[in-house]
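Same chain as my last thread, 536 residues:
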Amino acid sequence: MKYFRKIIAITMIGTVIVTGCNTDDLKDLNVNPQALETIDLNFLFTSAQLGAASAGSSGDNRYIDWRTNIGMCSFAIQQLANAGGGIAPGDKYEDNFETAEAPFQFFYLDQLKNIAEILRQTGDGGYDAGNKTNMRNAARILRVFLFHRATDYYGSVPYFEAVNSSENVFFPKYDKQKDIYADLLKELEEATAALGAEDPADGFAEADLYFDGDTDKWKKWGYSLMLRLALRISNVDAAAANTYVTKAVAGGVFQSNLDNVWVPMAETPSLWTNQNGISRAFYPGDGGQPTFLSKTFIDWLKGANQGSTADDDPRLMIISGGIAEWTPTEWIPINVDPLAQKGMPNGMNQSMLDAYEGHTVDQDAEYSKINYLFLQRDEPYMLMNYGEVELMLAEALERGIGTGITGTAQSHYEAGVRASMQMLIGYDPSFLVTDAKVDAYLATYPYGGPKPELEMIGEQLWVNHFLNWWEAWSDWRRTGFPQLTPTNFPGNVTGGTIPVRLKYPNSEVATNPNFESGATLPNLYTTKVWWAGGPE
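reply #2:
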């Protein structure tokens, strides 16, 4: 019941303190409607936590997931495919202004403002100065998570002057991604170390949706994020990567799936705030986005021998619900035979599919779809998990990054695969993958056997990030794995190459006088961000 009480409170206060957002007015980046001296910071903290899962108080909780996580990332990294319907610029490398603007709109004008107000009120001269220490430092960790996502989408973004300044900076300057990452890592180190023992008197446990005030779990997440950010920059700043991988391991990263960061969702009281935005984007009669899995993804899950189930990934018929029809009232299976599962090719429209298949294609009757049990509107939303951490530790050992990691690259790889498969039970009890099935899979595809070790790690990270497609896209941009074949749909805006960043919103280009001097340019989907080999 505690969760529902908090959600109701957030829903109520959201109607009072949120004024809406207008991305055409850059002043909003630092005008904070939450700046009220007597507001209960627990409300803002819970709202910021929901916001990290695309919920929260500003508008439609489907918006950023639908436009960007799904519309760009899921298709660009070829886990989903789309031959018409919904939002899918990443499938055919097209421009979509809503896809480009969604992260700016939701990070800066909602979640980050809530966090900024928490930091203001708990900082020097604030209403709660010296109080709520654990909330303050947890908010700093959450702020790192959100800014890391923002800069990974675009490259250089407003950071030091944006939503955390004591002055009203109407046009915040852009900061280099290299400098942003340096500060994010510093913030993680300081905030994680500063978390103290649980204090029931500070109300943090009541506000905390993720860990119910368990600061040990917050520390593990802080250090796990540090590991992720350190590897993210490892191709361009080896020294910093070495330093922070070592610090993350020494601090203590996730140790099991019990440490996973889940955001609970609920059917009530608010359709727009409390329900899972990914699910709402796909749900028939709500968003209605098509849910077809891609040929690249289905073929990978079916294994080397497409004519046998013996070498299938155990997640095949968990991720795929089969070839089926999904209506607002029921899920209607057509073919759930694993051998019959078939992914849709990326980068095609209906006429191209007809030519490719040699007949008029009924998409619902021919291609596999996401299992509808992943997409219930009260489905929890995952931010980060133990399987990813183990796979990153395997990569760090393979590449010789950092010190203090016990075990072997193989042992961490195998633990990462096991955790990635078995964490899916968090979505539905029927998604259980037994140890015996994991063991059989690892024996079929031994570490370093069928492919080079780093490629196997990269591919497993790709599957681990199912639904968390923005992170799958970032890992692919950094590692090059899996090795994807681009499409070349007529009229695409990338010259037939997979997009490697988002374009900036038109409002930023037109109205922020600091844009030309500070943004990552040229403003194209083909311009790499710093950690992927682009400009600082």
